[in-house]
Amino acid sequence: MFPFNEKYDVCDKVVLVTGAASGIGAALVENLHRRGARVALLDVNEAPIQAMEERFGAADAWAMAVDVRDREAMTKAVDQVVEHFGRLDIVVANAGVAPGPSTVRTVAPDEFDRVIDVNLIGVFNTVHPALDHVVANRGHVVVVSSAAAFAPGSGLASYMASKAGVEALGRALRIELAAHGASAGVAYFGFVQTPFVRPLDEDPIGRQVDEMMPWPFNHRVSAHHAARILADGIERRAASTMTPFVWTPYGWLRGPLNVIVDAAAAGSHTVHRLIRALEEAS
Question: Annotated catalytic sites, by residue?
Fold first, then answer.
């Protein structure tokens, strides 16, 4: 077995990051590159990742525009990363989308499918073709879930469902990869100030839902802070990383807490009013 209590130095390791064009993904690429890693940048938006590749140089960076929903393209991308660098050690499945607020009753089925396809199926499409390389190099996988995986999620069911699925996938990977001396972890983020949260911020009812979150759960951290926490977690092969830290005890106590929180939300006239307004606006 790999001595997981020892530091896993990312210097000279090859790291594949999806969703690398902006937000946490871009900040993570910058952070890992400063630590000496060579980085493969994957995103549907080509211009930003090409700019990073040019800035870092071909020896340290490689970029490809690809949609994580395209299974065949993701398999080819992994093959090309290995061809370019000669190896692949670490995979960070970070790509994701945030839907605008809607209820299960009113959400467009195509929009529900899109969120699941990017946030959950896209994680599988990223990780699956890379696992043989990760195992061969006794490397590490990170799947990016969210505090939404265990928090109450009325109005954002597709997002919550996708992130709960990512959490389950990451936990399974941790157990399975340990049998081969490799490792995996799940990253949980609360509110991170990135373009990712724009659909919630730009929707009037979404802002009301956001305002209902009590302090300190509504506290937002920067993408660079989230990236540092994530990079630190990779270097200790963390089974889980979470920021803001206030979500950690909630995650530990989610079982009994969610019984109470769900019951309170289901009986709240304020929540009822917001749900009806959300459905009327759909």
Answer: 159
pLDDT 10s digits, 42-73: 999 999 999 999 999 999 999 999 999 999 99
3-state secondary structure string across 22-39: CHHHHHHHHHHHHCCCEE
Q: Note the pTM of the prediction, 2 decimals.
A: 0.91
d(C-alpha 145, C-alpha 159), whole Å? 10
Among candidates 79, 74, 85, 69, which has minimal Cα distance to 15? 85
- Is beta strand 191-193 parallel, antiparallel or unpaired with respect to 220-222? parallel
Task: Residues 14-281: name the CATH superfamily.
Answer: NAD(P)-binding Rossmann-like Domain (3.40.50.720)
| Total length of the chain | 282
Cβ within 8 Å of residue 222, ≥6 positions away: 27, 192, 193
Domain residue limits, the chain: 14-281
Nearest alpha-carbon partner for 94 in 226, 252, 211 = 226
